[in-house]
Amino acid sequence: MKKTVLLVDDTSSIRDLVKITLEEAGYAVLPAVDGLDGLKHLDGKPIHLVITDLNMPNMDGIEFIRNIRSMRDYLHTPILLFSTESAEVKKRAREAGATGMIEKPMMKEEMLTHVKRLAR
Predict the structure, then answer these.
(1) Res 2: pLDDT
(2) What domain range includes position 62?
(3) Do the Cβ atoms of 58 and 35 come closer than 8 Å?
(4) Phi and psi of 51, rounded to 5°?
């Protein structure tokens, strides 16, 4: 059974690139355009990893992470945050419950290394 990754990013080109990369590596990908859209996928079905952008309309990445961490079914789901932000923002993301960070622009190999390590 394929492991499922919830991918949340408001930039369609990044979302498409990451989706293709993950699907080529054997993952099922659920794309979402922002945190509100991402919450629709958190309905109790297995999600092995969440990758989210930080700056998005409607619900940013930190608020999205807080929402995930309040759900019993996803309390321990690993979450990676895409970011180019300061150390303070990264600290806030970790405090909200992010498992790790991926710097933008990211390298394909680095992203796959993180995904393989965390997707459970």
Answers:
(1) 92
(2) 4-118
(3) yes
(4) -120, 125
Strand partners, 100: 80
- Contact call for residues 80 and 117 (beta carbons, < 8 A): no
* Number of domains the chain is built from: 1
94, 59, 57: which is closest to 78 by C-alpha?
94
41 token code pair: 């996928």
- The answer to which of 8-22, 46-60, 67-81, 90-104 has the lowest mean pLDDT is 90-104
What are the tens digits of pLDDT across the range 87-103? Answer: 788 888 999 999 988 87
Write the CB contacts of 120 (distance below 8 Å, at least 6 apart in sequence).
3, 48, 49, 78
Average pLDDT, the chain: 91
CATH code assigned at 29: 3.40.50.2300
Question: Residue type for 94, please?
Answer: R
Model pTM score: 0.91
